[in-house]
Amino acid sequence: MTKPTIGFAGMTHLGLVHGVSAAEKGFQVVCFDQDHDKIKVLKEGHLPVSEPQLDELALKNSRRILFSSSASDLAKCEIVYVAPDIPTDDFGKSDLEPINKLLNLVLESARNEAVIIVLSQVPPGFSRQKLQPGRLMFYQVETLIFGCAVDRALNPERYIIGCVDPRQPLPQVYDEFLNAHNCPILKMRFESAELAKISVNMCLVATVSTANTLAELCEKIGADWAEIVPALKLDKRIGQYSYLGPSLGIAGGNLERDLATVCNFANEFGTDASVVRAWIANSKHRRDWPLRVLNEEVLRINPHAVIGVWGLAYKENTHSIKNSPSIALIKAIPDCCVQLFDPVVSADVVSNRKCISSISELDACAGVDVLVIMTPWPQFSKISPKEIAKQMKGSTVLDPFRVLDGKECRDVGLRYFTLGMPN
Fold it and tell me: Which listed site, 81, 86, 135, 364, has its alpha carbon 20 to 30 Å from 329?
């Protein structure tokens, strides 16, 4: 039996990752985007997204993937995913105009019997409003996590599917594609599926906020959060995969969007969202930890200190700088000379004229009074604290994610500061 051809409309992060992953599963794939220049670059093998495995799998499966800027090619597909990234503003509000236009184009171009699936994250109520008589349409909760998106697409924990009637079987071609991923399939009404994605993220935010709140307390009372985490992971009510590492708040845009969505619905329907607003406040407070320590330990004494910054991406293994704590820090110190290095993100994203692009980690340390590690890129942990100390003029290191070994740093004379541990 011939496998169905799968279409993905929208070649931003979400659509590109899922398109390449579907090809890796052995399906013929049409990757469509109206942007001719974007498709030209993709055909040349240059992927605008930084994700582990993505470049290799795109090259490996190139014969299965058709990159196209012609909507008529979607007529070749039995299934079409509408999968553009949904942009958000600084307040977490989604801009739905691009997906509305793309969905309309897909409905015009795909064959009448094709299964249309909205993969982009949309607010509750969106999918049902888009139903058209005689068209098969579903909403599928996306599981993309920046930095491990390909693995998540290839090995999903479960599929959450929004339907008109969850009691009815899924179309055969759609069922075949989902079952190729060998995971549970949870069918529910559209609104439940749309809210399920937000619900998952709310639980994650709650865990992150708990870890950040208690890690900050550790810094004040002499406890070490890293010693507490193993005990929590062994508690079955919490679990080994919980988000228990302290962080600089939440970033990236997706979680912020869900927080804003819940607050907006609470305002509209008169429900209580005070805990969500508390999470937002906690996130902003924790994001500014490096700035507070920098002011107290360095800038208060030396206002013209030279600062080395490792990392611009909001997290490791991604090129995204959406709500990046590093960018926020740099904007907060406009009068300081800053030497920047990130293995993926260009220093050009920073508008500060006093920021200097460095060619390596140690180059960014040369002559600085303080080093701040703002993104936990794995390669940073391979840099010797001894070599860092040799390059620096000063001795202060801010390492919120414990990328470096704190004891080694102190042994070579560095003043080491991190989240969740007293100084």
Answer: 86
- Digitized pLDDT (tens) for each residue of the chain, 423 residues in all: 689 999 999 999 999 999 999 999 999 999 999 999 999 999 998 998 888 999 999 999 999 999 999 999 999 999 999 999 888 877 778 889 999 999 999 999 999 999 999 999 899 999 999 999 999 999 999 888 888 899 999 999 999 999 999 999 999 999 999 999 999 999 999 999 999 988 988 888 899 898 888 888 898 888 999 999 999 999 988 888 887 888 998 888 878 888 888 898 899 889 888 999 999 999 999 999 999 999 999 999 999 999 999 999 999 988 889 899 999 999 999 989 999 999 999 988 887 778 999 999 999 999 999 999 999 999 999 999 999 999 999 999 999 999 999 999 999 999 999 999 887
**DSSP H or E run through 9:** strand 6-9
* Length of the chain measured in residues: 423
3-class secondary structure for 233-261?
A: HCCCCCCCCCCCCCCCCCCCCHHHHHHHH
CATH number where 55 lies: 3.40.50.720
Distance CA 44, CA 59 (A): 10
391 and 301 part of one domain: yes
What span, in angstroms and rounded, lies between the C-alpha atoms of 351 and 358? 15
In a domain, 67, yes or no: yes
Count of domains forming the chain: 3
Place of tokens 């293995």: 343
